[in-house]
Amino acid sequence: MKPRDLLLALAVVVVWGVNFVVIEVGLEGFPPLLFSALRFLFAAVPAIFLLGKPRVAWRYVIGVGLALGVAKFGLLFIAMKNGVPAGLASLVLQCQVIFTVLFAIVVLRERPRLAQIAGILIACFGMVLIMLDHGLSAPLGALALVIAAGAFWGVSNTITRYAKPQDTLRFMIWVSAVAVVPLLLLSLLTEGAQADLDALHGIRLTGVGAIAYVAFAATLFGFGVWGYLLRQYDASTVAPFSLLVPIVGMAAAWLLRGEAVGLQQGIAAVLVIGGMACTVIRRRTPRAAASGERVVVESAV
To answer: What is the model's pLDDT at position 291?
Structure first.
């Protein structure tokens, strides 16, 4: 990888890792579903008018918009609002790798490698350690929502594999546009119009900054650069960088929010990240190297 591209990959990792702390800050001033809707609103507008229509079938755009934008991020934001700390959320959410592999086996009829099966088992054991951690401050119900968010992320990854978008930035912008209206409606129904109006009326500079960060830095910059890297290099070269996201997320939560990491949680983090590494890192065969094979790899926060 060229030095410039290496720096870009590391920049995306830092942006996505810090994003969990920014989400936590944003949720201090917004109801979770409203905050999620605002994220996608500003990620989509005015970009959709500048880049044109997506170059994939609308059913894929709508499917990913509902699974990723509404379900995954809606559940994640609700979970973090209800007590899941930023660093822990960044780690547990990566269970999406497990669900992506499982859905690929069931839906796409892909045959798992032995390393993938071993990786899933190792990561699951790490998740169990997190659940059993007596020092864990997050309610188990909220933690279950993060796992559910990871499952919906796996659903969106499976749909994206079918879609195979050539322009990941344009695809993500239209996915963002699809998510806005359902999130706003759900916010009105569950959080209430008054709560939404109060949040918008009392918006502070930190809230504006949080919206700007999650919309422009985490979504547009992150996905734009990630898509560029996947077009330049093999997925096996790019994908491992996503394993650094929870490490940055936990470090940022410790530095910026004072979130402590206990011994058991640290061991669990090593197991989860190591297990995920087994599922996404693979040796390139001579045939794959000769053909310049590309695989769509999904990672975002």
So the answer is: 44
